[in-house]
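Deviations from the work plan: none for this task. Representative record:
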Amino acid sequence: MKLTIIGSGYVGLTTGACFAKVGHHVMCVDSNPKKIETLLAGQIPIYEPGLEEIVKQNTASGRLKFTTSTEEGVDFGEIVFIAVPTPPNPDGSVDLRYVEKVARDIAAVIKGYKVIVDKSTVPVKTGEKVADTIRRYAPSVEFDVVSNPEFLREGSAVADLLDPDRIVIGANSPRAIAKMQELYAPFVAPVLVTDINSAELIKHAANSFLALKISYINHLSAICDAAGADVEKVAEGMGMDKRIGRAFLNAGLGYGGSCFPKDLAAFTTISNQLGVPFHLLSEVHNINTVQLQRFIKAIRDTLWVLQDKKLAVWGLSFKPHTDDVRSSVAVELVRQLVSEGARVTATDPKGMESFREFEPELAGKIALVDDPLAAVEGAEALVIATEWPDFAEVDLNEVKKRLIAPLVFDGRNLLDPWTMKELGFQYHCIGRNSAARS
Ligand code: UDX
Ligand code: UDX
């Protein structure tokens, strides 16, 4: 099939590339000419494992094309995806200006029947608004609007796309449903067909539930520390119940990234607007905020004064295997340490370039080094903020030699408390502190 993706960011580019890989012909559109130039030159503007190869292969075979022209894109595809950003407004609601603009741009150039698919994460009832907008500006053209939410995790987006748990198609027209089923025919996954509003809700409900699981285990981690228990064992025991599952029960510094914080805020706002306030979600958010504060307090309680203390921070990206630093708890941690006067030296395997780009002011206030061992040289303590496997492989004896005192604050439970104790570290982790001291 011929497809068009409008918005070639993390979601749009990965989606387009994977559709090309399974045999479709895809045109990716982006309003940023630099991004399209980069893609046409055979480079990809983001780090996502496995993506570069798929983009290269499919560009070479002619199945993946790039343009800045919405008209060229809309003419090309039978199905046109909208994958532009949906950032949060200051009050937590969703800024839908890019989606609205793309709907108008499509209306300006649409000539015959198209299926317009919303891939961006949007509040319930956005599909109706997209349809109203296109109808207003292109009243005589036939089209259908579909909601087809993405469930991609950055860092494993390619695998999530090629081997999804499920495919959700929210559509109100049999013609559009048939097209979407044809599109997804090469994929082996259950397909759930719903109305548009339900599909939109599934995305917000799923992400909020996953955030809830994380906050649940994070609050439990504090209870474990207070009671002298090990949160990893508690998570394991809970997770063995198939009804609960072990996934997303990793205690740490809390969730970040471009999705959970914004989707939770959006869902909270929408439920308020619908007159059914979802107070539970406010508590999920509160726990996430408190979790970081509790960790910083532990650092403060140990070091007493942070002013002028040299601290090494391992990790800037919001999770491993991505260069994305948007709403990263690691970045927030660095910001707060710096605001208390600490002299931070940070490192990240992939996130330093985007950190410099998105946080130039903060980047100017800290030192950035490539080597995790160089970061700990002469530092008062090591703080682990992102659980990159690379960090788990660093020689801990060398870390100990280079630190002023053998002090490690592990915000992601990356290291083993017993090993750390054996090596003579004072080790502070999340919800496993009784294990670390026993
Ligand atoms: C996506 C979604 O679409 C968002 O709703 C979801 O919550 C997270 O994933 P993402 O792919 O992460 O966003 O955003 P980004 O990497 O910023 O890419 C968006 C692309 O759209 C950018 O390349 C931008 O240049 C492009 N864009 C933006 C357009 O082509 N047209 C516009 O009008 C606005
Ligand atoms: C998420 C959803 O998983 C995906 O389905 C959706 O489409 C987009 O949003 P993503 O934000 O890429 O994906 O990452 P995810 O793996 O879900 O992690 C989100 C945050 O939660 C990260 O900051 C991560 O460190 C944190 N997390 C995750 C935990 O703290 N504990 C866990 O057990 C799992």
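The chain has two domains: 2-194, 208-437.
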